[in-house]
Every structure is written in structure tokens, then in C-alpha cells.
Design goal:
mainly alpha, 12 helices, Ribonuclease iii, N-terminal Endonuclease Domain, Chain A, elongated, Double Stranded RNA Binding Domain, single chain, 226 residues, 3 strands
């Protein structure tokens, strides 16, 4: 593990409480081989909430005419595991994470989920030590510019794919779509589709095709899934 002062140099932040930064880079596996008092899981919990709030504020201001569903979709792409792992790699966070020998030997320092968790923990630590403005500065440097990449990719409107990624991350299973109702004449059908997760109806949508109805159901479900 590299010297944490190097990480501070990358971030251009000097922590007043060095223990906060140390905790932020401590994976729970490290506790089995050390006397470290706690892992970064509590900071990760805090960082996740702060990340969601500041990202929502940024998107609200960045896209003044975008409807709620589109803002939700963009946010889901920004705060997902793969995007946060990209941020972690840009600051070489894997080099500074404290983890067990076994975890590191099995590729933990390159694991997307572990890197994303570390990024959220780091956000929590920056918030407690430096305040929200420093967190916003960090996000504007490393995360928010990725909005341009998302816009160019054209992936914003694919609500089904975004919902699938979100549900897989949280519950390790796929959402299930079912037609609830079909109405209208044969040449002008209207479909109402529901999407279920772990047996619970998470959203439903209407469309002139099953695909359109599924997209609208996923769009509604994303509001509850994130």
C-alpha cells in the first residue's frame, strides 16, 4: 500500500483528521489481519447519500428542462458501480486501499465493486473533514464531466438496461416484466406492463408496443430503485 500523502497530493486535499482518510481506505477484510478499529463501510454509507444528493443538485442545474425520469436515468449512470470504479482508477485508489493479502492477491485492488465502495467511503471522509464544497470540487473534477460521455453514448433513454444494472448490483437478480393488461383494437393495441423485483411490483408503464411499455415501466421503477 502506498503512502496516503501521495493520495492527498492527487486529491489536492490535506486531511485535518488523517484517521478519517485511513478509515476510508480500509476494506473490511483488512480487519482480520490488523488491529484497525473499523472498516470503511460506515463512511461508504455516508458517502453514498452525499453522492446522491450532490449529483442530483448538479443534474437539476445542468439540465433545466429535463423531466424527472431523464434526470433519474442520468443519475443512475453516473453513480453506478462501473462509473465510480473509473473514478477510483483515475486517482489510483486501488494502490492505497488496505485489504487482506488474500483479497489483494485475488485482484481486489482492481475489483469494480470494491473500488466503487472505496470511492463512496472517500467521499464520506472528505465531507466530514473538509465539508460539502470540497466534495463538490472532487465530483466536478472526476465524476460530473462523465455526463458528456453519457450524452454522446445515447444510453440515457435505455431505462431497461439501467434498471437491470441497478437491480443486479443491489439484489443479484434480474427484474421480471409481465403484461398486466392489453386493450384497444388489433391495429392499435395499448399494453400495460409491470416490472417486479423480488416478487414486488416496482413500476408499471403503458405503450403501443410491449417494448415501449417495458421501457416506461423501467423508467418508473428507477425512481424507486435508486
Amino acid at each position: 500500500m502506498s503512502n496516503l500523502s501521495e493520495l492527498e497530493d492527487i486529491l489536492k486535499i490535506r486531511f485535518k483528521d488523517k484517521d478519517l482518510l485511513l478509515t476510508a481506505v480500509t476494506h473490511r477484510s483488512f480487519l482480520n489481519e490488523s488491529t484497525a478499529p473499523e472498516s470503511n463501510e460506515r463512511l461508504e454509507f455516508l458517502g453514498d447519500s452525499i453522492l446522491g444528493l450532490l449529483t442530483s443538485v448538479f443534474l437539476y442545474q445542468r439540465f433545466p428542462k429535463a423531466p424527472e425520469g431523464e434526470l433519474t436515468a442520468i443519475r443512475s449512470l453516473l453513480v453506478r458501480t462501473t462509473t465510480l470504479a473509473e473514478v477510483a482508477r483515475e486517482i489510483n485508489l486501488g494502490d492505497y486501499l488496505r485489504m487482506s493479502r488474500g483479497e489483494r492477491q485475488s485482484g481486489g485492488a482492481e475489483n469494480d465493486a470494491l473500488l466503487a465502495d472505496g470511492t463512496e467511503a472517500l467521499i464520506g471522509a472528505i465531507f466530514l473533514d473538509q465539508g460539502p464544497q470540497s466534495v463538490e470540487g472532487f465530483l466536478r473534477t472526476y465524476l460530473f464531466p462523465k455526463v458528456s460521455e453519457i450524452e454522446k453514448s445515447g444510453s440515457i433513454a435505455d431505462f431497461k438496461n439501467q434498471l437491470q444494472e441497478s437491480i443486479q448490483e443491489k439484489y443479484k437478480e434480474l427484474p421480471v416484466y409481465k403484461v398486466i393488461k392489453t386493450s384497444g383494437p388489433e391495429h392499435k393495441r395499448i399494453f400495460i406492463v409491470g416490472v417486479w423485483v423480488k416478487g414486488a411490483l416496482l413500476g408499471q408503464g403503458e405503450g403501443s408496443s410491449k417494448r415501449e411499455a417495458q421501457q416506461n415501466a423501467a423508467k418508473e421503477a428507477l425512481k424507486k430503485a435508486l
